[in-house]
Amino acid sequence: MPRTNETILKDAPAAITTGEITHGLLNAYQAETFLKQTFEATPLMGEIRHVLRREKTGEIDKIGIGRRILRAKVENTDDGYRAKPNYGVINYATKAVRVPWEITEETLRENIEGQGFEATVTNLMTKQIGVDEEDLLINGDEAAANATDFDASENYTAGNCTIYNGKLYRFVANHSAGAWNAAHVEDIGVADDKDFVKLDDGFLKQIKKNGHKMDASSYTAMNLDLYYKMLSLVPNKYNNGSLRWIMSPTRKQQWDLFLYQAIISQGGSVPEFIFKAPASIPALECPNMPNDSIILADPKNLIEVNSYSVQIRKTTEGKEAIMQDKRFYVVHFDVDSLIEEPDATGIIIGLPEYSFS
Q1: Which pTM value belongs to this model?
Q2: Domains of the chain from N-terminus onward
Q3: What pLDDT was estimated at residue 21?
């Protein structure tokens, strides 16, 4: 008995069904439901803070309480002292993004799922939107919009982006006119990724600019000191049990391998918690993180802002639909990434790859 698409893709999350795909704007409840489905696509998306707003641009209020607000009590006396909350705002400006796709009527007729194949594809698209949202929230860089082919006669400054041999790079150091120097750049994707990366400035770029940064490029191998040194840069008031190491699965596995090799070569044992929580800070694996960086942050300090202006459009009419015998779909929504307290974040960059024997 052949396996159906639904069986093969059973792990795909429940998403908007075919009957719910409309020709226009979703109401607030439908928009929130759709966005929540994308939030469940990856572990990190389920941990960070999500804010929904009706306006595409605006402010998010912040409120905090200072330290050492206690004062001595004197009977029958009011010295006029009052503890006051600290107020602030974070400005957001969402960017409009879209995901178009199409399905031929022949596919629907010939597929074992029949009309159910349409819902299967929609489920997959919803999950992939969530995966791509996380990728953009982490790796986005608006400077990629200005990326052109590398020109040896040009000067480049750190932060500029360029295209070289079909790949997209960001300069990590100033580069004077001259030949290509791989030590001056970091790989951020293929050339076609430019249109994706340029949509927003992600958490990596924001933390490198406004958070606490530690360069590990002088290290030849992973080391427990790296974690403790990074922690020492973040003020103690934020080290309250909610911080997490956010790293790629490969980086986490190489950390495990480093510890195993240390046990084998030096004998003894390593406490189990060191594997899962270096420096007593739990690790959170994120496939969209680059292998050479680790973020230190409270996931709730990382914010994704969406507006309720979610549109899911579908058409089976028009000249193209008739002549090509297709159904056309597109999802429109808005997104922005913010960090509430940059001072509470840190990043380790330039981590060495594990040297396999």
Answers
A1: 0.80
A2: 7-62+86-140+303-339 (3.30.2400.10), 142-198 (2.10.10.20)
A3: 42
